[in-house]
Structures are given as structure tokens and as C-alpha cells.
Amino acid sequence: MTANNTLKVKADEVEPIKSTKDIAKVKQYLLGKENKRDYTLFTVGINVGLRAGDLLRLKIKDVLIDDTIVDKVVICEEKTDKKREFDLNDSAKSAIRLYLDTLQGIDYESYLFKSRKGSGALTVESAHKIIKTTLRELNIKGNYGTHSLRKTFAYHIYVNNIKNNPTIINTLQKMLNHSSASVTLRYIGITKEVISDVYNSLNL
């Protein structure tokens, strides 16, 4: 099995981080590290929902104009080759600003999440290891990796909006470029929860 196939399998199997307490724990842990890159990677990742490859290809010029963090970012998706526009919320902006303020000078052409081994971007494999190792060190049970960031984004959009906005699943489906709503539900791990709730609601 090639490295790419291995990562694809891992991407399909990994879970979203469903507990907001666990998310806070991860952020606090990464924030405590001297280098704020991984904290920013995690925070931006769970707030914008990009695929790992697209997230890691972001350059400083994509998020910063004249020393101001932008409201909207436009990219060309690696997988679909389509233009994608997304907003940076306050959490993502604050994390980016914190990180950029620690850098020695700003090179707008530099990758936002640069590898420590050179001028290139952090690789998907390295980012996967960072996420997986962090969750393991914090003893947060489950199978996690880089793709957990995108799944966490989608999961929390769903659970935070489903009561007041029944059409949110259709919006998510479009945002994630899925073929059907059922694919999106399965992707964010809702299907198993719903089935379990049905069983547990029955006490004949």
C-alpha cells in the first residue's frame, strides 16, 4: 500500500472531535508550546473545514493584506480544481495573528504552515502525525488525524444548527462537495449516533 493510499484509508477512518471540552484541551495544550504553528494549524483547521492539502498550501499572502488579516480567503481546491471562497472567523483570525506575531519578519510568499525542515509547506503526513500524537498525549480516546480537523468543523456546524435550521445538512453537503446528504451524515459520524439513539429510545 502506498503512502497516499494509507493516508486515504486513515482519512476515511478518523473521527471528528465531538467534545468541545476536548477541543479546548487540545487548543490549550498546543498554545502552551513555544512555536504557535501547530496551535494555529489546529484552530484554523477546525474553523474553516478545508481538506488537509488545501489547508497546508495556504500562503501568508492568502490571509494577510497590508498587515491585516482578511475576512475572506479564495483558493483553488487541489482535489476539484474549483475556486473556493471561505470566511475566517474570529477564532481563526486570532490564531493567525498570534502566530504571525511570533515570526521574525513576514514573507508574504511563504507558506503559512511552513515545515521546520526548509521553506516548503508542512506535509500532510507530518500534520497527520502532529494531530494524532497530540490527541494521544492528551489521552483523548478515538482515531484522529489531519482529516479530523475538517470532520470536526462539519460535525459542530451540524449539531449547532440542526435544531433551528433543518436544511443545514444540505448546506454542509454543498460545502463539503458530497454527492448526497447521507454521505455527509456518515462522514461526520452522525448516522451511528442516530441509530443508537433510536435503539435506546425503545424500552418495550
Automatic annotation (TrEMBL):
Pfam families: Phage_integrase. GO terms for biological process: DNA integration; DNA recombination. It comes from the Bacteria. Keywords: DNA recombination. Residues 12-200 form the Tyr recombinase domain. GO terms for molecular function: DNA binding. PANTHER family: INTEGRASE_RECOMBINASE YOEC-RELATED, PHAGE INTEGRASE-RELATED. This is Tyrosine-type recombinase/integrase.
